[in-house]
Every structure is written in C-alpha cells, then in structure tokens.
Amino acid sequence: MTKILLVEDDKTIVATLSEFLVREGFAVKSANGQSAALALLDSEAFDLALLDISLADGNGFSLCSAIKASWNLPVIFLTASGDEYSTVAGFDLGADDYIPKPFRPRELVSRIKNVLRRTGGAAGSVVTIGNVQVDTVKGVATKHGQDLFLSALEYRLLLVFLNHRGTVLTRAQLLESIWDIAGEFVNDNTLTVYIKRLREKIEDDPQNPTIILTVRGLGYKVV
User: Domain 153-222 classified CATH 1.10.10.10?
Assistant: First the structure.
C-alpha cells in the first residue's frame, strides 16, 4: 500500500486530507514540522511526501532538500504560496509537483498517482489478500493475474475493507465510507447487493467466503 508522509501544521487540513487519502487507498502519517517529519523518515519507509511550505518548525523548502538528499522520495508541495518565486524555488529544489491551496482532493489523488508513475515509486502499492492483488496506484484489482473489472463502488468498498483489515466494520460505517462516490443513493439494501457482487468476484466460493467474513450481529471484516 502506498505510504504518504503529510507535513502540514494546520490540524484541520491534516484531519480532512488524511481521512480522504485513507479512503482512497493510501496509508498516511503526518507531522507538523521539519523535526517530526525527519524523525518519521528515519524510522519508517514512505513512497511520497506532501509538504506545506510554512511549518511549525523549519520550512518546506529546507525539508524538501533534506528529503531529496537522504531519501530521494517524490515530493509534492501543497501551499497557499502561489507566487512564481515559490513555485520556481520548489522545482529548483527537486519538487515533483506543486499544488496551490485550495485544491480539489480528487485532483490531488490524480497528481499523486502521476508522480508515482513518473518516478517509479510506490513499491509497496500492491496489496495481496488470498488470490487477489490490489494495485492502489493503478486502481486495479486482479485474481490469478486476471482483471476483476470492479466498478468504482466495488473497488472503493474493497479499499475500505483493506484499510481496516482485521477490524469489524458495521454496515453504518461501510455506508458512510462509500456513499459519496455512488451514482445512486446507497442504502442498506444497496450495500448488501454490492457486498454480494464483490464476493462473487474475489471469493473462490462466494457462498462460503474466506476473505470478506460476516460477523453476525456486528458487520463484516477482512482477515
């Protein structure tokens, strides 16, 4: 799974953006300043960094230089500084993209995927569960090497399960996670239909599932 380091000192942006990225299939760790970010980089492996310029300590420019020098990660700047100097300075330091605030979250996801494709990042972007592999950068799920051709809502539902692997999810939690990308109103009955369709595509025996398990009286979980 693609792991992103988000360096931003605005708690509201961190909370909102982290939740959105997780729902899109990314793993996210955040830091509010340069020191905390460098500590995370020393202790964990990341596929890409999202940096604000103004931080609690240090700044995005110096952090970008440190990242490129020691870890060579792809870097995308997220900043309210949309002037030409800031943009040029960011690219001169090796930034891979530059997105001024406010930005559209889905555009950001597209930019992240494009940068990862260009840089060859996201080595850990393929998640395997049973005979199913999910490439969270390409947005493709395969079984025995064959594309499962999941619909947008089926894919989103699978990502929700994978992001909460081992955790029991209630039907209410699942509905909350998928309603906003559906082309139609998603109610409890619709959720049942989509879980059935997803099982038919990923399970060897949909009548006796081994991937998406029903926890009676509680909900579902992926082990």
Answer: yes
Taking the C-alpha atoms of residue 56 and residue 120, their distance in angstroms, rounded to an integer, is 31
Q: What is the pLDDT of residues 96-106, one digit of tens each?
A: 888 888 778 88
Torsion of CA 35, 110, 139, 152, to 10 degrees: 120
Q: Are 50 and 78 in contact (CB under 8 A)?
A: yes
Looking at residue 183, its amino acid is G
pLDDT at 192: 92
* Six-digit token string for 221: 């979980």
The domain 3-119 is placed in CATH, from the list 3.40.50.20, 3.40.50.2300, 1.10.730.10, 3.40.50.920, at: 3.40.50.2300
